[in-house]
Fold:
Amino acid sequence: MANPLTLYIPIKQDQTTQDAAQAARKHFVSTYTPALDHFGKVHYARFVLIPNHAVPGKILAICVMTSFDGPTNPYLTDFWNDPALREVFAGLAKMALADTSITDYTGFENFINENNLSEIGELYQAYKYTVVQIKADVKYPA
Structure:
């Protein structure tokens, strides 16, 4: 059964942070597909920029949403153990409006859990298969 993660991070309003958020969104799929495929647990992943309606043209927050197999904290271990993804989340923490730095796994886990808007069990799922089961059963065209 898949579980949700909705990582909502309000970000700084300076131009450097705004540009970094735009760049992260633009390259999210092309950059992180290999790592996400490697884990074999991720059903879907999205990177969304939340507009700041009070300041037109600015981004209020970043939202990273995933659906994954298994409990949250072991899923986070996969991200922490991948140096490139660990760097990504450290970069997201640096963009955060709240002064945050990630220096160890506990800090990473706390950052994700404190900014996760989703709860286990609140994701509708039309099927009950894991990513591994789906990929094993689907016949891809040559």
Summary: The longest strand covers residues 59-69. The CA atoms of residues 92 and 120 lie 23 Å apart. The longest helix spans residues 15-39.
